[in-house]
Specification:
26% helix; 25% strand; 2 helices; alpha+beta
Length: 85
């Protein structure tokens, strides 16, 4: 990601200090919110437990969990379908 300061929440958003699926239908379809809510909990727990040092985020898309791991790692390389950012 070339301009980290321009990042905005997309698929996952923070609500009361926890992550859940966005309620914006452009980000997460209403039919996908239940599974995305559950994934947000799993992703957040796994990142907080395991993310250390240099992180490689493969298939990052819009980098939905950036806010979770940004403070946990020393550096990040993002790589989406369009190539490395």
């Amino acid at each position: 990601m070339k301009r980290q300061e321009e990042w905005r929440p997309s698929k996952f958003v923070a609500v009361n200090g926890r992550y859940r699926a966005s309620r914006d239908p452009k980000e997460v379809a209403p039919a996908s919110r239940l599974i995305t809510d559950r994934l947000a909990v799993v992703y957040e727990a796994a990142l907080r437990q395991h993310a250390r040092g240099a992180l490689l985020d493969l298939g990052c898309g819009q980098v939905p969990p950036l806010r979770v791991y940004r403070g946990l790692v020393s550096g990040v390389t993002w790589c989406g379908l369009g190539g490395a950012w």
